[in-house]
Design brief:
4-stranded antiparallel β-sheet; single chain; minor pseudopilin epsh fold; elongated; 5-stranded antiparallel β-sheet
């Protein structure tokens, strides 16, 4: 073996002196993680996971609030079309916990028998406030539903502002209806 190859195989120290391999200090094998390091990593992971779950819970509640607003907007649109095409008069009766679609039978307002109108429900954490002609309407639950928002066969509708707030997320939406039957939703926005 040539002399230069032997020199290459020998490890060289910082000073440039070759040291035989047997004299080199052996590195200790990695010992792994200590128990405290593992506990800290698990604790950080658990805290991060709980924060993520909490934030997704708020997003889900806001998503539910937005879905209720969109569904109510579609309901008003459907009732407006149904009123015009079928020559019927409808009304929405709002109370503390939910709302009821009413139909005028010629003598009085009766709850609608259509199951589709009852498919939209507010959750327990959601509350309503109705404003008509700049006045807050008393929507306490009564034995007989009172018509609050009229949707007439002429295509007209009672102008209104319907605020729905969610106590879990501290946010709310606003539904605004005009005389021509269109409804605009804004939110969810933080409750002020």
């Amino acid at each position: 073996m040539p002399r230069w190859e032997a020199a290459v195989k020998q490890p060289t120290s910082v000073t440039g002196i070759s040291i035989p391999e047997a004299r080199l200090p052996r590195r200790h094998a990695s010992r792994g993680f200590t128990l405290w390091e593992l506990v800290i990593v698990v604790a950080i992971f658990a805290i991060t996971l709980s924060i993520i779950q909490f934030s997704f819970g708020l997003v889900d509640n806001e998503r539910d609030l937005k879905r209720v607003g969109r569904d109510l907007g579609k309901l008003f649109h459907l009732l407006n079309q149904e009123a015009v095409f079928e020559d019927k008069n409808f009304a929405i009766s709002i109370n503390d916990e939910n709302f009821v679609v009413l139909e005028y039978d010629g003598d009085e307002w009766q709850p609608s028998g259509d199951r589709f109108f009852r498919s939209i429900a507010l959750t327990e954490s959601q509350t309503s406030m109705l404003i008509i002609e700049n006045q807050v309407i008393d929507i306490s639950k009564t034995t007989k539903p009172q018509p609050h928002i009229l949707i007439l066969s002429s295509g007209e509708m009672t102008p209104f502002e319907w605020r729905i707030e969610d106590s879990n997320t501290q946010s709310g939406i606003l539904l605004q209806g005009n005389l021509l039957g269109s409804v605009l939703m804004t939110g969810p926005e933080p409750i002020t």
